[in-house]
Amino acid sequence: MTIDAVYLLQLTLNGITLGLLYALIAVGLSLIFGVMEIINFAHGELLMLGAFAMAFALPVTGLLYWPAMAAAVLCTMVAGFVVYETLLVRLKTDEFERSILITLGLSIVLIHVMQYFFTATPRIIDTQYGFDGVDIGSIRITWTRVIGAVAALVAFAGLYLILRFTQFGRAMRAIAQNREAALMVGIRPRVVARNAVVLAAGLCGLAGAAIAPIQLVTPYMGQFLIFKAFALVIIGGLGNIPGAVIAAIALGLIENWIGGFFTIAWQDASVFVIMIVVLFLRPDGLFKRGGMRVG
Amino acid sequence: MSAVLQVSDLRKAYAGVHALDGVSFEVEGGSITGLIGPNGSGKSTTIDCISGFQKLDSGKVVLAGNDITGKVSHLIARAGMMRTFQTVRVYEKLSLRDNLAIAAQQFDPATWVDEFLRTRRYRDAVTASEKRARQLVELIGLQKYYDIETGILSYGQKKLVALAAALMPHPKIVVLDEPVAGVNPSRIREIEVALQQLNQAGETFLIVEHNVEFITTLCHKVIVLDQGLKLAEGTAAEIHADSRVLEAYLGTTPEVAEEEMRASA
Amino acid sequence: MKLVLAIAAALAFAALPFLSGSNYIVGVGTSALIFTVAAAALNLIYGFTGLLSFAQLGFWGIGGYATALTVVTFGGNFWTGVLAAAAINAVVALVVGYPMLRTSRHAFVISTLTFALLVSLIARDWVDLTRGPLGIPDLPPPRAFGHVFSSTHQFYGIAWAFSVAMLAFLYVLCSSRIGRTLVAIKQNEPLVRAQGISPMPYKLAAFSISAAITGAAGGVFVFHLGIVDPLILDFYYMQTFLIIVIIGGTGSFWGVVVSGVALSALPEALRFSDDFRMIIYGVILVVAMFAMPSGVAGWLRERELARLRASLR
Question: Which residue in B5, B26, C203, C297 could disulfide with C252, CB within 3.0 to 4.6 Å?
């Protein structure tokens, strides 16, 4: 088989887009883990809520992309706030297994409530851009993909600025680096943890809104994505945000390349195989945790 | 008497900072040896390194003629060194009986095959362990808690449980990490008496402690660490008279320091 | 006392097919027995050893496929199939367990989850071996000494004997020194090491034994269903096992056995709709984690301890 350069380019561009969206999910998980040392199993369902919010907001906004996306992000941030204040706030540190089981229960409830009301039938989401796209030679990348990637990049830039330069971003990093010391200088863990969860939920909602027009929207859409994101967070080193981003983009590329030349089976399995190999070689992930470095 | 534990030229650095900068000492068999020093002097690092809970950079640790340098913690324990922890560690949801039985089980010859077949070897091991446990429980005065989960005991009582557990397998040396820190002062005397009785019965102890009076009344030999170096070594009286020790320990003149030492005890 | 009760309960369960002529009720009883075994195996690794393993789902599926393939593809029978399922799982657990157990306990949980997903992908996509999404239907009923266990009532006998044997084995294991050491590892690993015990072999053994039993249970279960397909790896099974263990009380052998039998009947009692049932499962999980984090058995024990504490003052 000769490798067609244009085909390869298309796979690469799609891979980068997909990788950036994975990164949005994985970064949220990593952020929450860094601050609270817990895993949010319902994170994928936040993404699903974001996608559904996008689906319902688009007709209201007259298919306008940006307002609908803003509504979806707002919606998941509120959901994140509620999840934190009702459930996660009751967790003590070092209750990792408990956090998983609680958020697993939440995830089951969310999936099936959505399925009960909106059925499992996949929805196709139309936006103002339809299937238009940008043509590069003989290939076409749809606008929804380009914009999804751009939105993700903007979100990362925003996250970087928040963690680096704002008071509450610095507080998050402080807690992630040294919990005891952070408490001693008067950082309130509850407020910081809530901010982290809301921020992570917002990123996840953005990912959901961006994915909605690219893929089908179903109540189960979050589940498979989140399992991949878990693997990414492990590969990148738990709690390591740049590690998660790098791993996510690499995975997007690898999946698309594999998907382009092999069967779909290998595409889905690749992340899990990679994770097991990484754990075998480096039990702490590719990039050591070492607090929450942002640059 | 011969040395049970020989530590030579122990070195350990964290990110370039020397926590231990060549510490050497010996512990005689049947003695009680104290290890004191101000905060950050390297006491805890020393015992974590010799018991395998931290990796040492260089140096040599010999336990009863066996080189245990750099071995993992459970192998060092099997070689005959049992230790306790600064923040008390017991199995809170197991009874005192089980706490003590687990501490000895690695050291008896019964395998799981013996257990499932209930062989003579298994029964003998259990009987011996039970007998030892009863003796120790009597010594620490917790008989009435024998079948109760240790989680309900007070902090000081848990320290006693940890001490008894460390003694269960007749170790060659017992390393105690701050055995009286956080213990109600009225109980410290009880621990002191228990340790003296055990020592008279032939047990060897290495004790790290902040409480200077506790160390000086109990120990045959005291080693003083400061900034990762051995500052002095000798009997309690010699240490007491050493002005360098007082200065390092309290950073003041000997007279004031002695005053504070008495007050703190 | 507990043992007498347990024997009485086991005999009462043996009598079920003679009391009820309904295939439906006896079928529910069969599932209940098998689920209880799988939950008890999860209790060994999670409740006793403190390692939350989602890999159980993968082992359950591997067991189901291994048993079915032994019979259909490799010309064995049901009994050798179940043995093969247990053996394969034990080996797989040792191989994947070692790198997983070397990581942090956080990474362990995620990697076991990944393992389960990988198994479900293989079941779906390795069509040459597993026949893909269609699965292997019409599994023949087991036979022994010229007798064919073809009816639901007859198969119940197999499930009963299997679960009694597995639970008895797990009981002996959990109440032995090994079981006690697993509890110690869960409670305080540094102390275990300071007492000369290396935790790794114990953890690996618990993981592997738990995998073997779960696999055998999965094998018996697919012959109860009569078909094995990728749905055997549905997350629903894992959730059921987890809920049984959590409601019963992590680390309590009898608590989990009782809740296994009781809760396996629950999905049947709650036959509103699948969605509604799952919603109730989720709510139970969340509420239980807050109201009774250590299950019914743990709750009873807390009360007993509180009384003890009061009497010692």
Answer: C297
